[in-house]
Design brief:
Blueprint lengths: L1 H32 L22 E3 L5 E3 L7 E10 L3 H14 L3 E9 L3 E11 L3 H11 L2 E11 L1 H26 L4 H33 E11 L2 H5 L4 H24 L2 H22 L1
Parallel strand pairs: 3-7
Antiparallel strand pairs: 1-2, 3-6, 4-5, 5-7
Helix pairs in contact: 2-3, 4-5
Pfam families: DUF4349
InterPro entries: DUF4349
Keywords: Coiled coil, Membrane, Transmembrane, Transmembrane helix
Length: 288
């Protein structure tokens, strides 16, 4: 009996020592795999991406798509008032300057008064030639009486409109896909109304972008050519006889106008006798 118990005791003792060694090995392995500073809870998931940022837009599949960098948009405008000696000669010089700078006249207006001649021009010129055109007018046409030049940076406005336009086009495609799978007539009408509103907004945004591009690519210059007339030279050619006859004519015309004005009051003349009759009758009753 002792011979059986003694080997069994040694076997149990060996198994216990092995189990303790295995537990220590497992604990050591876990400490090596998961350090203490990484045992803490995992960080929360990142927030969902924004709808569309200013640097990217979403494609129809929802994948961000980078928008091309928009170059700076600057609108240049100006106005000049120039005194010249001869309007026709100045026009010839202006045509040469316009051809040289690839510009054109958008609007032209001429006025001839007793004191001066005016030629007002609205000129459109490529953006890169604007400064050269202004210098040509300042140096070669006449005496510059006034000059105002302004620059307006519309890059931010152009960028905002472009981003909103990209958003609206994405929503428009999604609404069109929803329209294909609409189950009821009410849903179809609501989706069609949303599509119509988006199409109108897209047309307005695209029109605004085209307008900004036009103003950026072609600058506007308002030019007013001015020639003063010398009144003394004109009046000196009129003799005394002509001026005397003109005075008689003006006097006669004034008398005729006065006479016709009196005649136009004839209804009041008809009332005058009736008023006098009533006044006398009232006076006689008062005396009695």
């Amino acid at each position: 009996m002792r011979t059986l118990l003694l080997p069994l005791f040694f076997i149990i003792l060996i198994n216990c020592s092995k189990s303790n060694a295995d537990k220590q090995a497992v604990s050591v392995d876990l400490m090596e795999v998961i350090p203490e500073d990484k045992v803490s809870s995992a960080p929360p998931p990142p927030p969902p991406p924004a709808e569309i940022s200013k640097a990217s837009a979403l494609t129809s599949t929802g994948i961000p798509k980078k928008i091309d960098t928009i170059s700076r948009k600057v609108i240049k405008n100006g106005d000049m008032r120039i005194q010249v000696g001869d309007i026709k000669k100045a026009q010839s010089q202006i045509n040469d300057i316009l051809n040289k700078n690839k510009a054109y006249i958008q609007k032209e207006q001429f006025q001839n008064t007793d004191t001066d001649d005016h030629l007002d021009l609205t000129i459109r010129v490529p953006h890169k030639n604007f400064d050269e055109l202004v210098n040509s007018f300042s140096n070669g046409v006449g005496s510059v009486l006034s000059k105002n030049i302004s620059s307006n940076d519309v890059t931010e406005e152009y960028t905002d409109i472009s981003i909103k336009l990209a958003n609206k086009k994405i929503y428009l495609e999604k609404y069109r896909d929803m329209l294909k799978s609409a189950a009821t007539t009410k849903d179809m009408l609501e989706i069609q109304e949303n599509i119509r509103e988006l199409e109108d907004e897209i047309d307005v945004a695209e029109g605004r972008l085209r307008f900004i591009d036009d103003r950026v690519n072609y600058s506007t210059l308002e030019v007013s050519l001015y020639k003063e007339k010398v009144r003394s030279s004109a009046t000196s050619k009129i003799g005394f006889g002509s001026r005397f006859i003109d005075s008689l004519t003006e006097g006669w015309n004034g008398f005729v106008s006065f006479f016709l004005g009196i005649i136009s009051l004839w209804p009041y003349f008809l009332l005058f006798p009736f008023i006098v009759f009533l006044w006398r009758k009232w006076k006689s009753r008062k005396n009695k």
